[in-house]
């Protein structure tokens, strides 16, 4: 082999080796979403959520809710129990979001001691009069039948973020999600109507730091422009890596199971 050919081959090999680490580290939109779910929520969590809803500038409702969740390889389960107001006390919801099957949702009515199914993939379903929808609780867990596209990068409130578009192949719906590159936190999301305008959006307003120095959302805001509604969410007493009883994650038992002493 001629010396000049050997030299060129060496250069190509060096360039290839230099390129491999960059391509190996490049994440797809799906990988970013999967990692964000794990980093943001961990394998399990429990927190108290204060939900304040406003119609224009006037307070509309206030709720205190226990929210728990377990993240598995292909399925996420979320349990909600209302503490306030008094008329909602004991009301429970269970949401099961799978990457492979359609999401499922159930409501337990303490007055009748009955469990009824809900349309989990209908974003108009209001959870306990709080203004929250199943999409708000499911967050960025894929529904199945969606296409994730990494649209690029964008800076939100001084944080460098991945911008991801999630398009439904079933109903044509579109969501935009901004996830920080550093900690893989969701800092903003928006559901778009057919004209490309946000008909429902979420943005993190405040963060808190754990003892290990990791940041998590403390306060979030949901806007529904068409209805003039603003919802403030504040997370209190958040605990991660806790054991959630299996009975709270089973549609047959989540309603009647007594998890508090």
> What Rg, in angstroms, do the CA atoms define?
22 Å
Give the strand content: over 45%
Helices and strands, in order, run as: HHEEEEEEHEEEEEEE
Structural class: alpha+beta
Distance between the termini: 80 Å
CATH third-tier fold name: outer membrane lipoprotein receptor (LolB), chain A
Q: Give the class-level CATH name.
A: Mainly Beta
- Which residues sit in consecutive blocks of at least 5 with pLDDT less than 50? 11-24
Helix content: 10-25%
Number of strands: 13
Mean pLDDT: 82
Strand order of the largest sheet: 6-5-4-3-2-1-13-12-11-10-9-8-7
How many domain units? 1
**CATH H-level superfamily:** Lipoprotein localisation LolA/LolB/LppX
The CATH level-2 architecture is identified as: Clam
Number of helices: 3
In short:
Helix content is 16%, strand content 47%.
Question: Which tags fit this structure?
Answer:
261 residues; 3 helices; alpha+beta; outer membrane lipoprotein receptor (LolB), chain A; 13 strands; 13-stranded antiparallel beta sheet
Overview of this protein structure:
The protein is of the alpha+beta class and 261 residues long. The protein has one domain: outer membrane lipoprotein receptor (LolB), chain A (Clam), CATH 2.50.20. 16% of the residues lie in helices and 47% in strands. The protein has helices spanning 3-25, 29-41, 134-138; strands at 44-55, 58-71, 75-84, 92-98, 104-109, 114-118, 146-156, 159-168, 174-180, 186-192, 198-209, 215-224, 229-240. The protein has a 13-stranded antiparallel β-sheet with strand order 6-5-4-3-2-1-13-12-11-10-9-8-7. The longest helix is centred in the N-terminal third of the chain and has 23 residues, at 3-25. The chain is globular and about 50 Å long. The relative contact order is 0.16.
